[in-house]
Amino acid sequence: xxxxxxxxxxxxxxxxxxxxxxxxxxxxxxxxxxxxxxxxxxxxxxxxxxxxxxxxxxxxxxxxxxxxxxxxxxxxxxxxxxxxxxxxxxxxxxxxxxxxxxxxxxxxxxxxxxxxxxxxxxxxxxxxxxxxxxxxxxxxxxxxxxxxxxxxxxxxxxxxxxxxxxxxxxxxxxxxxxxxxxxxxxxxxxxxxxxxxxxxxxxxxxxx
Amino acid sequence: xxxxxxxxxxxxxxxxxxxxxxxxxxxxxxxxxxxxxxxxxxxxxxxxxxxxxxxxxxxxxxxxxxxxxxxxxxxxxxxxxxxxxxxxxxxxxxxxxxxxxxxxxxxxxxxxxxxxxxxxxxxxxxxxxxxxxxxxxxxxxxxxxxxxxxxxxxxxxxxxxxxxxxxxxxxxxxxxxxxxxxxxxxxxxxxxx
Lengths: 208, 193
Ligand SMILES: [Cu+2]
What we know:
Chain A is an alpha+beta fold. Chain A is built from 4 helices and 10 strands.
């Protein structure tokens, strides 16, 4: 029994060591300060020190799933507008929900330059949503408060992370379905770097 | 060594009965009768909590224009139901709108079924919603957003309330509770009685 215990301990120790080793071996980011100025000298003005990664958009639907879209008399009465066909229903639904359907995009902005920058706005194809805004989420003792922000700062040699429960790109008045696997073209405008295009993938976020 | 093992096993077995259920969420101790309500569901039908005894009810207060917090929690609950498999039959996830002004029965149906067709989306007048929210210790407040196309948002608490098959309020989940923890507790409560 003791031998088993000992070998278990050994295994555990190996595991612990392995995970430590993994951390130590993780690639350290290249010293940005050393490379960035050189790039700034040689590269055309359009080339910026910013890179966008992990851009994704939460799926959203402006229509009802087929299984539940069948109208019954009760529903028609409840919804004040008496509608006869499913098609009419879908149309009116889209109209009614004009401003209320929302979704959000998330991404990480990496700044390898020695100067900070600010994300000022994001735009997408006009047929996608009525408005695209920059928002943040503030958790005040368990109360979630969403607020628009004028800009999102990207520190020098650092990054700005837009993520669930924090900064996000807010789509207001979504006009069309966004399904898993689709791509949304986003245009990010920065104070210094100008405009950067990025393809955001539509996906359901992994659960914790 | 073998004797110690045997003793440990006996102790484990004993802790299974007798002692109260170990829950991952914050327990309501002692459990109390869940504040009852009748609201309109996403099909336009009345939904009365006390009429759903025999099922575990999972309550979340939110609003359909919420792009971040509500979809995250509803997504987690949907994942939990999927993992519960057949036992999900004894669990009813209920989303209660705290934006009666903007949300409608139609909108709620469209919203909740995006996550899981089994979800319920409830609507009620502010006069009904307000005391209900308070009774669960939740909170919400309409907040104007000048200059935003959203016009206004709803500041709201983001807890999930769990009511057992006997209609007793048993526990509260914090926002972002892992799906594994949700599944553990919901399965345990679904197996009661
Ligand atoms: Cu937002």
